[in-house]
Amino acid sequence: MAARPHLRPSAGSTYLHTLQHQRHQALHTSTPLSKNSISIVHPIHHRIRYKKNQLQPAYKDILQTPKWDTQSHLFKPQYTQQSRLEEHYNTTIAPDLLLANFVHNERVIPGRKRQEWDGSSQYHINRPRRAPAGSAVETPDIKQRTFKNIPRLEAIWIHAFVRDAVRVNQERALPTMVMMQQITGKKPRPVYSKATVMTWRLRKNMMVGAKVKIQGPDMYQFFATLVEVVLPRIKEFKGIENTSGDMFGNISFGLDPADVKWFPEVEGNPELWPNLAGLHITLVTSAQTDPEARTMLSAFGLPFVGKERLHNVPSFEALEAIDRKKGIVYNY
Amino acid sequence: MTLRHVPGPLRPHTIGLVGRLVQPARRQGGRSIGTAIAEEITTETGSGLLSSTTSSVAESPASQAFKIMSGLILCRQPIVTPELTPFERAYYNYQSELQKRLMWTFPKWFYYPEGTLAERQYSSVQPTVDGNDRAEFERPDIVFNRDRRSKQEIVFPDRDVERETEESAKIYAKIEPRPRITEADKTNDFRSLERKLDRTLYLLVKKDRQANEWKFPAAEVLNGETLTGAAKRLLLDTGGPGMNTWLVSNTPAAYHHYPYKLEDNEKYDGAKIFYLKSRIFAGTFVPQKGSGIIDYAWLTKDEIPDYIHKGYWASMANALSKQ
What we know:
CATH superfamily of the domain at 153-305 in chain A: Ribosomal protein L5
Shape of chain A: globular
Helix content of chain A: 25-40%
Shape of chain B: elongated
Oligomer: heterodimer
CATH superfamily of the largest domain in chain B: Nucleoside Triphosphate Pyrophosphohydrolase
CATH class of the largest domain in chain B: Alpha Beta
Structural class of chain A: alpha+beta
CATH class of the domain at 153-305 in chain A: Alpha Beta
Strand content of chain B: 15-25%
Number of domains of chain B: 3
CATH architecture of the largest domain in chain B: Alpha-Beta Complex
Number of helices of chain A: 10
Strand order of the largest sheet of chain A: 4-5-3-8-7
Order of helices and strands of chain A: HEEHHEHHEEHEEHHEHEH
Radius of gyration of chain A: 28 Å
CATH architecture of the domain at 153-305 in chain A: 2-Layer Sandwich
CATH topology of the domain at 153-305 in chain A: 50s Ribosomal Protein L5, Chain: A
Number of strands of chain B: 10
Distance between the termini of chain A: 74 Å
């Protein structure tokens, strides 16, 4: 069978040949040659899109001014006042956590990693490595606790699923978006369904809720309201379950529609909110394990209840015992 | 007698466990034992072990036996936020004004629906925007009765005084923050826990002696006692039961050691103090009889160097909070 040089360039072909080949191909297709994308590295398959009209000189200042610059049209003043909770964290919580989490002679506890094949079969070559033992995905190492990685509240995700948006009308999700904007001070973005489920009358790309991520002063303001105003007024509330958490320091819990009404912004105008939706709240922390995250959050006044869940993380003593078998002896 | 009380010529660091606690002489480059675990201090090692090592120990150079003590860094956390510096105040003011300038226009139609009484009351008190207010190169940018060149000023309608109840009056009452400078600050009352509200306060106690009168409280770790146990006993014996405290961690936060003068103490060559951090939430420190404490003071980090000597300060300074 004859070679097909126009599809598979010979070994001696150059970059120019490839370009010519592409151009040749393009002439016979409807793909426009003047597509607004460029490639800046050699394999041409990765192209960067740009808007041609933005290349005009008038856009230069706008596009080149970074977001944090007050001259930028995207600038948003955030640090408008002292954050009470953040100050409390800096002066009181952080030094205490550093001391309380300290472990003498601590070392890295390795996470579950993908395993190599033993090479007993020729088919092991180039086969993706085996899944980690006891886990579907790799887990991060638990590093030594130092002053550089004291657990800190990083962000809060708030998500709401509006059932009526599926049952009645997609627009039923909009009041929930407005409500979330009221209580967080940040504009949420809509959540769209990913799949079609006929039994629920759910179609793909329907607006079914909203979500928002808050950080910095907004986050501390929301957290203070939650811990000091909202949660104490919920009659049934006993605390966040200790079983909550994703093992890596992020704690989630939910608020019922009846609980949401205790936010001052909602309580002030109850007639504006005839249908409230519940909220899923995730507290994203930089803690490496859930118990450490809970310790940090409880210092802000968030109560936790129930039995502490113990994860299958090898203890320091267990690791030491393994090393002792290998002949490594620690001398301290 | 426990191994800890073995005097000088013995070299207890050859006895494994105790070696961590009673250190070899500093000249031999012994490591610091900043994190000695309290349980291990109170060793119940049999005398058999002691006698078996004595012979080898006698030949080695002299080492020192230290008294192990448990100390307390009892602190009151800041109650109010730190005072802003002039720069910080200016920065926050600038950012705040900028935020108001860039803020969305108040959605009147949302909070005061059209045609309602509330809307009429609200609209009647709003200032009208001057459409002819032309500065150089600028023209008014008026949207929904707001000139978007500047921040929006909203006036709330006066409340209905006639229909006001006691409860609603309470809600509308102006909040008067209590002063940051308290009575204790004005009278310079070092014994009060209400002084320096924006700083961490640390307890120092004064004993009736010639030198080093002021110290952080400390007590010897007795037989069968842990570091934390000794700290709790110390708190009760010196300050009384009227305090609500919380021990932050079993890990010592600071470590200080000093030699005894030969004529002072025959049993020990010096003392090693492991300071545990504790927080006081309520109650007061009341010096107890028999504790030897004649005075006490709640001090900030800045004030402490005036009370204690330089070497002691060097050991303690890093464990104390700047704010």
